[in-house]
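Box 3.1 A note on notation
Throughout this textbook, protein chains are presented in two layers. The first layer is the amino acid sequence; the second is a token string describing backbone geometry. Keep the layers aligned when reading.
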Amino acid sequence: MILLLISQIIQDEYIIRFKDSSSKKKFLNAHKDIVKKEVYGLSAIVVKTNDISKIQKSSNILYVQNAINFRINFTPNDTYYRSYQWNAYVSYLDKAWNIATGSQSIGIAVVDQGVDYQHPDLALQFDPSNKGYDFIENDNDPLADNNTTTDIHGTHVAGIISASMNNSLGIAGVGNFRLYSYRVCDVNGNCSDYNVASGIIMASKNPNVRIINLSLGSSSPSNVVKEAIDTAIKYNKILVAAAGNDGGFVNYPAAYDSVIAVGAWDTTSKKASFSSFGKELDIMAPGVWILSTIPSNLQATNSCGNGEVLNGYACLSGTSMAAPFISGVIGLILSINPNLNFNQVKEILCSTAEDVESSGFDDRTGCGLVNVYRAVIKAQPTQ
């Protein structure tokens, strides 16, 4: 952890610096009711008041200032964070962590393939009594099939959102959240619309879930999925979906107005060539060579082109990786201000994004590249 500091005003607290100790003593005697403490080694005191103007100005006072809160600059100690997680820097997530690192009171549903909830970097994020549901096997155990290399997508998505942070292991997810896995896709990545709809509706009825991540899509709309999304909106859930990887129009369900559609940004500071686009696109997030969790018994060779053999981690690319990044960012926003609704969250994301191509909204990059730091700053409740 690097010990750098940032500042923030402390509400209704002020420091009064006097020219000498006798002036300070007189003030202490006259204003005992608002004095909070003395500043060691200086002729200065801290007062707590909602109206500093009532303090009589005196030539014996050198200055009056707001009290400022300094905080340690948080840098996670996860093994691969510095060498692999470029996405944290380009989005200013690393700076945002000084303000918020998430809360397990915020539940995020991964509607996808199963998740290896036994993975050492994910296990603490799951509720032992309710991990989600498996609509492929129709049981309460949404565990990924750890015996096949084709059932890694859900685990990868889950790690991007909320791999355990600062545990000296693997990677750091966007934040610390409660994860729920709704397995609607089989080991080959096929996700029937009726299973997807079922997963959305079950996640919507989970009172602990605030955000539903949909790293899946189709060029064709589905009535049953649209009805499920409408149900989620009635339950005040925020839905996030991958825009698509065919370089064409935004896929469904991302194309629906009530879903935040996410495109992929690459390592060369431009829209990924595969990332779908159109007027339905809302925002961009890192989506190329993203390191995240895969079932812990699997191994990735030369992942991310670094020549390193990784156990339980791999790099994948796609809007499927960009969408969970935004789901995690929304989790950070809600951990600061849980009363925000879909429209308010979308406005925060859009108004704070980096304008990366044409001025204002454009159909290639939406509102621009997410700036997590600006978003969490804007999300803070007004005093």
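The two ends are 31 Å apart (CA to CA). The chain has a mean pLDDT of 92.
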